[in-house]
Amino acid sequence: MNYSTVSRRAFTFGALASAGAVAACGNGIGSRGSGMIDARVEATLAEMYRTYPNTRQLSEKSNGMLVMPLVTEAGLGFGGAYGRGALRVNNVTVDYYSVTKATGGLQIGAQQYAHVLFFMTEQALSQFRRSPGWAAGADLEYVISDRGESVEADTTTVLAPVLAAVFGRAGLRIGATLEGTKYSRIIP
Predict the structure, then answer these.
(1) CB 176 within 8 A of CB 87
(2) Which of 111, 123, 126, 186 could cross-link with 173 by S-S, CB 3.0 to 4.6 Å?
(3) Where is the Ysc84 actin-binding domain (predicted)?
(4) Average pLDDT of the chain?
(5) Rounded-to-integer distance, Cα 82 and Cα 71, Å
(6) What are the C-alpha distances in Å from 116 to residues 62, 137, 169, 183?
(7) How do beta strands 141-144 and 162-171 pair?
(8) Contact 112, 171 (CB under 8 A)
(9) Ramachandran quadrant class, 37 (left: phi over 0; alpha: psi -120 to 50; beta: rest)
(10) What is the pTM of this model?
C-alpha cells in the first residue's frame, strides 16, 4: 500500500465522519422524544402554510403527509443527510420516520432544510406504510422548486401519487433534492 492510497482512504474516512457529525447536529439525536418531533412538525407545517399558502390545499386533498422538519446534509467528496419526522394522517401523527441519504461526487458544504411529502393517493400512502424502507426517486413531483419558489399545482401535478415540498434551506450547499433518499420507520 502506498502513501496516496492511505491518503485517499484517510480523506474518505474523514469526509464520511464529518458528514455524519454534521448530520447529527441539530436533529435531536440525543433527545429521542416523540414530543419534540411533534412540536417541530407543527412548527414546520405552520411555516410552510404561511410561506406557501397553496400547500394548505394540497394537505387537505392528500391522504397523508410525511413531515421532516429538519434534515441536515453535509458533504466533502462524499456526504450524507439525516433527519427525523412524522407521518400524519387526518392531522394526527400515526408513525415516526427517519430520513437518510448518502451522496458521492464533487460536493462540499452543509445545509439544513425541511421537506414534506404529500401522499395524494391511498395506494401511495399504503405502499409507503407497508415498505420496510421507502426510497424517494426521480418520479417525485415538486410543488416548491429547489430555489424555494412556489410552483403552481396544476392538474398534472395534483394527479401525481406523491408530491414534495422542500423549503427553509439554510447553509452553504447548493441544491436539495430527495432523489436517493430513504425513509425508515423509527420508535422515538
Answers:
(1) no
(2) 111
(3) 101-183
(4) 76
(5) 6
(6) 12, 15, 13, 12
(7) parallel
(8) yes
(9) alpha
(10) 0.74
pLDDT tens column, 25-78: 444 444 458 999 999 999 999 999 999 998 999 999 999 999 999 999 888 777
Cα–Cα distance for residue pair 127/168, rounded to 1 Å? 28
Alpha carbon distance, N-terminus to C-terminus of the chain: 44
Per DSSP, the three-state class of 187 is: coil
Query: What CA–CA distances, in Å, run from 137 to 14, 71, 95, 96, 186?
Result: 28, 17, 21, 21, 21
Cβ atoms of residues 79 and 20 within 8 Å: no
pLDDT for residue 18:
42
Which residues span the domain enclosing 108?
3-186
Check: CB of residue 48 under 8 Å from CB of residue 114.
Answer: yes
Q: Count the domains in the chain.
A: 1
Residue at 148: amino acid letter: G
Give, for 135, the enclosing helix (H) or strand (E). Answer: strand 134-135
User: Cα–Cα–Cα angle for 94, 98, 104, nearest 5°?
Assistant: 150
DSSP states of 147-167: TS-B----HHHHHSSEEEEEE
The half-sphere exposure of 47 on its side-chain side, counting CA atoms within 13 A, is: 19
Note the maximum CA span of the chain.
Answer: 60
Each residue's pLDDT tens digit, 1-32? 554 443 344 333 443 444 444 444 444 444 45
